Amino acid sequence: EKDVHVVTGRTTFGYEYEFLESIHKIYIPNNIIFCHVAWLIDAVNLERFEVEEGNSAYCEKDGILYSKDMKILYKCPRHLKDKEGVTVNKVCIPNGVEYIYPQAFDCCAELETIDLPSSLVYIGTQAFCKCSSLKSITIPNTVKYIDGYHYPDTWKPAMMPPGVFD
Fold first, then answer.
1. What is the mean pLDDT of residues 42-51?
2. Where does 9-164 have alpha helices with state H?
3. What does the pLDDT average to over 1-25?
4. Is residue 77 within 8 Å of 66, Cβ to Cβ?
5. With 143 labelled, which of 17, 34, 99, 120 sits at a CA distance of 20 to 30 A?
6. Contacts of 152 (CB under 8 A, 6+ apart)
7. 3-state DSSP call for residue 164?
8. What's the mean per-residue pLDDT of the chain?
9. CA triplet 63, 138, 87: central angle to 5 degrees?
10. pLDDT score recorded for residue 6
11. How confident is the model at residue 18 (pLDDT cuts 50, 70, 90)?
12. What is the four-CA torsion angle of 133, 108, 105, 9, rounded to 10 degrees?
């Protein structure tokens, strides 16, 4: 009933975790122009995002939250499901995405395969941490920043910071 434009911060009242555990879908209407995604980490049963068409800041593709221009992947729900409620174990990130936000795939335990696009440049801190079922991911050679570190054209997988797949 009120005009809300920003969702941010984390509370310390103690009951917010019970509330966040009950969330399975997050709907972001047109009037939300900024949502601090750090609080989403505690939404441990999240299955999908939905974004109202016409939102100026965000969009959703296959249940995953992106920036409106599809250059930033903000968050993949921990228990990603398709529209029919079937668990998803393979994610294909669309070409055009340049940045994977820190902890974007945090605790996505059902994911086995993540296909990264050739447009990707930056992978954030702990982007794929606690993805215990992950069997296949190929980092394209377009990636120049991983976990905040810059890598030259000659980088090798052995140089990857451990925090990305913590």
1. 87
2. 16-21
3. 57
4. no
5. 34
6. none
7. helix
8. 82
9. 30
10. 45
11. low
12. -150
DSSP string, 78-112: TT-B-TTSPBP-EEEPPTT--EE-TTTTTT-TT--
Three-state secondary structure call for residue 38: helix
With pLDDT > 70 as the criterion, what percentage of the chain qualifies? 73
More confident residue, 144 or 73: 73
* DSSP state for residue 30 in the 8-state scheme: T
Those residues with Cβ within 8 angstroms of residue 22's Cβ, 6 or more apart along the chain or in another chain: 45
**What CA–CA distance (Å, rounded) separates 47 from 64?**
9
Q: What angle do CA 63, 68, 74 make, to 5 degrees?
A: 55
Residue 53 falls in which region: left (phi positive, over 0), alpha (psi -120 to 50) or beta: beta
Q: Checking DSSP bridges between strand 113-115 and strand 6-7, what pairing results, if any?
A: unpaired
The letter for the amino acid at 112 is: E
Separation CA 32–CA 115 (nearest Å): 29
The residue behind tokens 């972001």 is: 28
Q: Are 59 and 68 in contact (CB under 8 A)?
A: yes
